Amino acid sequence: MKESLGSIxxxxxxxxxxxxxxxxxxxxxxxxxxxxxxxxxQGEPLIYxxxxxxxxxxxxxxxxxxxxSGVSGTCTGILLHQQLVITAGHCVCGRRAPRAxxxxxxxxxRKDGSYQKATALQGVExxxxxxxxxxxxxxxxxxxxSYASSQGQAQERGKPxxxxxxxxxxxxxxxxxxxxxxxxxxVLWSNADLAAILLEEPVPxxxxxxxxxxxxxxxxxxxxxxxxxxxxxFAEYGVRHYGxxxxxxxxxxxxxxxxxxxxxxxxxxxxxxxxxxxxxSGGACIKKGARNMLVGITTVGAQAPGGKEMSIFxxxxxxxxxxxxxxxxxxxx
Length: 333
Fold this sequence. Notes:
It contains 2 helices and 17 strands. It is mainly beta and 333 residues long. It starts with 50 loop residues before the first strand and ends with a helix.
């Protein structure tokens, strides 16, 4: 049965301010004018509604906390190796103001059917940018937590265990905020929203196997998203939840990155579909099979004009080479 995240007892509570400075915290939804392409309608970066992961099905999903280099906040991440966590780039980097050196794109030129930055920013006032040229944390804390009962370890159940590591942001990472007319600023472009945390010491358990996507997701694919978001404005961050939805669209970018989105309100069985919100940024999006496959990393939750929710993910397949490089680096530590 699905349950509101705010109604669940939390054995270990983390008090956080949900309006986290420096992270992708988008304004509350407002009516937006039609853009050339509504790739990122206005919204905010929770798996809600969702189920608590009481049986540790997704033990490799972790909490990520940053508090250095002028960047602070809480997100979700996924262990790919005992010393490697992947999360979103915007979880470890803060916003900066646009500069004169940020050259505006030229006229849109359609090619290969890919979505172009010039199209995304056509007629837009750029308000903020998050990329590697702004403040980025050099280190982060990662917390693993097990909820399942284990003989002789009852006192340890639900108690997070901390690890520390250095941060590496994807070199192509870029998120651009802007507005058209009187609308509130929101995400208009997101490229390679990924970061790696290389842990100083291995986590104290064997990481459940998780394959990297070997092909792009397709519209209609059923996916599961996992996160530690609180689920409502006044609930507490720090309880692992998961929920399902269906891929509605894959968007190939001119940079060879890709994003995909889910926007169903109901699952095939009639249950409410889940969406990502604050605190779930950086969490895993998994396609189930004989072996679970990591297909995306949560980048933002949004709401289209008219109130329809959607969740947007950075494609793992389009960044497979970089992820394999991070795995190799972790294996050599």
